[in-house]
Amino acid sequence: MTTERIADHIKFAYWVPNVSGGLVTSDIEQRTDWGYDYNVKLAQTAENNGFEYALSQVRYEASYGAEHQHESTSFSLALLLATQKLKVIAAVHPGLWQPGVLAKFATTADHLSGGRFALNIVSGWFKDEFIHLGEPWLEHDERYRRSAEFLQVLRKIWTEDDVDFRGDFYRIHDFTLKPKPLDLPGRPHPELFQGGNSTVARRNGGLYADWYLSNGKDFDGVTEQIVDVRDHARTVGREVKFGLNGFVIARDTEKEANDVLREIIEKANKPAVEGFRAAVQQAGNSTLDKKGMWADSTFEDLVQYNDGFRTKLIGTPEQIAERIAAYRKRGVDLVLCGFLHFQEEVEYFGSKVLPLVREIEDAESGSVGAPVLASA
C-alpha cells in the first residue's frame, strides 16, 4: 500500500480565531482576538501571505476556556465578503443542521463569494452541547453514520434535481435546489471536508468527502491515516485530499521557539484542559479499536486542543519548512496552521517559512518518486 500521490505544492490554511482564548488553553499572553474587526484584518493578511484556506471553528456554548464564540457559517460568509481570494471553511454539526437547509445557505454563500465557501462536517464530540440544546446524543459510530448520510445528501442536492434520499437519519423527497452552486473548473460544488481519527471517520472521508482533516500527527501517524483513507476512496473510484493540523511556533532560533512552547504548557489553564480531556476522550475511547480522536492524547497535547504540538512545526523557519516538505512527501496536501499571536505570526510565516517550502518543492520537482512511508 502507498499514499499514491504527492501534491505539486502543499497548501496552507489557518484556524480562524472566532472563539475566545485563541488556539491554546493557556494563560500565556495572546495577542489574538476573537472579534470581527481583528478577524477581517487577519483574513486579508493571510490571503496576502500565501494562505489559501481558513477554517472557522464551531462551538455553541461557553466551555473549557472558550467563553465566547461567533457562529461559524455567518462568520465565514462575513470573511469571504471582506476578501478576494481566500476560501473559508465553516465547521457544522449534523444533528444541529438539517442538510437541505444548510445546502441552501451554502449555495447562497457560494454565489456571493464567487465559489470560495466550503464546509467541514463535524460529527460531534461535545455531548453537553447536544444535551443542553435538547437534541439527541448518539453514540460514536452512529454519529458518523449520520454524517455519512449528511455528506451524501449535500452532494446530491447540489448536483441533482428531484432528489430522493431515504436513509436512517434523513429523508428527502423530490427536492430540487435552484440555483445550484457555481460550477467551477475542477469544483462542481462547495468543497466538503471531514475530520476524525477513528475507523468509521476514515471510511466516511474516503467514501464521501473531498478532504480529510487529521488532528496533529507525527510522520508514521499521518502516513497510516492517509493510506487508510485513500484505500477506502479507491474502492469507489474516488480521490481524497488530506489536511493535517499543526500548531506553528516559528522563531529566529530554535531556543526561542522551544521556550515559547514550554511557556504555553507551563501556563496551561489546568481545570479547562482537564475538563476538555474528560469531555473528548470519552468520544475517542468509545470506539472499539480505540482509534478515535484524542483517545491517546496527553495533557500537554490537549493544551492545543487538536493535538497541534504533535506535528512538531516548532523551530526556525528552515526547520519548519523542511518538516512541512517531509509531510508533503508522505501525501499531505494541506497544513492547517494554528498560531499564538495570529496577526504577526501569519505574516512571519508568509515571509519566512512559506518561501522556503516553495524552494524545496521546486528543487524536488520531477525528482520525487513514490511517497515516503518509513519513519524519519
Automatic annotation (TrEMBL):
Coiled coil: none
SUPFAM superfamilies from the UniProt entry: Bacterial luciferase-like
UniProt KW Isomerase keyword: no
Keyword Nucleus: no
GO-annotated biological processes: alkanesulfonate catabolic process
Catalytic activity, EC: 1.14.-.-
Enzyme category, top tier: oxidoreductase
A molecular function GO annotation: alkanesulfonate monooxygenase activity
InterPro entries cross-referenced by the UniProt entry: DMSO2_SphG (IPR024014), Luciferase-like_dom (IPR011251), Luciferase-like_sf (IPR036661), SsuD_RutA_monooxygenase (IPR050172)
Key words, A-Z: Monooxygenase, Oxidoreductase
Protein name: Dimethyl sulfone monooxygenase SfnG
Organism: Mycolicibacterium hassiacum (strain DSM 44199 / CIP 105218 / JCM 12690 / 3849)
